[in-house]
Amino acid sequence: MIEVKGLIKxxxxxxxxxxxxxxxxxxxxxxxxGPNGAGKSTTMKMITGFIxxxxxxxxxxxIDVTVDPVGVKRQLGYLPESAPxxxxxxxxxxxxxxxxxxxxxxxxxxxxxxxxxxxxxxxxSVRTQTIETLSKGYKQRVGFAQALIHNPPALVLDEPxxxxxxxxxxxxxxxxxxxxxxKAVILSTHILEExxxxxxxxxxxxxxxxxxxxxxxALRARQPGARLDEIFRILTT
Amino acid sequence: xxxxxPLFKREFLGYFRSPVAYVFLxxxxxxxxxxxxxxxxxxxxxxxxxxxxxxxxxxxxxxxIVPAVGMRLWSEEKRSxxxxxxxxxxxxxLEAVLGKFxxxxxxxxxxxxxxxxxALTVAFLGDPDWGIIASTYLGAILMAGAYLGVCxxxxxxxxxxxxxxxxxLAACAMLVFLGLSSFTATLESFLPVGVADVVSNFxxxxxxxAFTKGIIDPKNVAFxxxxxxxxxxxxxxxxxx
Lengths: 237, 241
Fold this sequence. Notes:
Structural class of chain A: alpha/beta
Order of helices and strands of chain B: HHHHHHHHHHHHHH
Shape of chain B: globular
Shape of chain A: globular
Largest sheet of chain A: 6 strands, mixed
Helix content of chain A: 25-40%
Structural class of chain B: mainly alpha
Largest interface: A-B, 26 and 20 residues
Number of strands of chain A: 10
Largest sheet of chain B: none
Helix content of chain B: over 70%
Number of strands of chain B: 0
Oligomer: heterodimer
Radius of gyration of chain B: 19 Å
Strand order of the largest sheet of chain A: 6-7-8-3-9-10
Number of helices of chain B: 14
Distance between the termini of chain A: 31 Å
Distance between the termini of chain B: 22 Å
Order of helices and strands of chain A: EEEHEEHEHHHEHEHEEHH
């Protein structure tokens, strides 16, 4: 579903992403791990067509992002880091705007989409609140709702559980797991238990390169008995 | 292009979701009307039933007031990170630029049209030439669009709204001053007269003046429209770089 081939991005004289290649199939949840500044977000921004790669390409559902970025954007649900949203809009207004721009112009259909994601992400109680008045957990869920509104075949989530309390984290993980069967999901995270909890595969990147691409079980088997963060530290330093 | 509508709607209503719109509309109307009634405008002393003294200040007023509308168009999106959301939705850069610009322009048009009590006042006091009033409104709206094009462009260059405002103000000031005779005289002192003429032709004042006299010259309409087109083109380029 998502195919990434030799992505390269350079900022000044620093190579942020240095030839990253992988594929994600339907039904897979790929955990994208790496220290801060390793190039996780940059890679995700290139897959979603927000920034252009210097070389290499990514395709979603067979559409090449360097050829038809809007086509890729139609197929993708993307939750950017820290879930940006228009602060002066209410949750409902914001989701209606997203639904409209995602092509749901018919009033009945639009309302149905918005109601569906409001329920899915448990936002019904704050639907008439402006986004600037929401707590971080709720804001994150608005970002989630926005990414899911068109039921996309591919999801890219940049730190979806960042800033949530343990219960909310659990809720988000359950949600991701429940949708994973018919979607290809990439999620980036700092939390190693999260990878074990929901990911079917894990990629670790350091300084813009892939240093591990395997199942969480295989990652653990690298050093039996060692803690995951120990293995992570050895791989990324 | 069908994506322009939701973008336009969000942006236009966005003005009214915060106090910005109300503060702006009230300030604009209070300042513009008081300038007309001030001793610089001489609305009453002029002794004619026309809005000439009201619209006289528009090029100057727009110089400050349009950057206030335009500065947030892109700077705010960049600062709050929503630009990443916007450009990962299925919209092209051109659609986003047009949606935002048209929303800002519609808002400015609303501000200009809200001055209609001034027109009613002159109609009450005398017998104004409605043709001239209509052409003046058309000119003011076109000029507002040209100012806004410049401001949208400078806004796309920075995520800092203050920088955006100052840049816009400077650019707009240039476009006004170009038409002043003292400024043209300075230009002529070191440029060939022909070149100085061409440069001063870019002034908003010269092009707007004709409208206030009731002349809708295609040249002036084309000037404002092509300036809008050009700045929007640069706007797309600035965002895609």
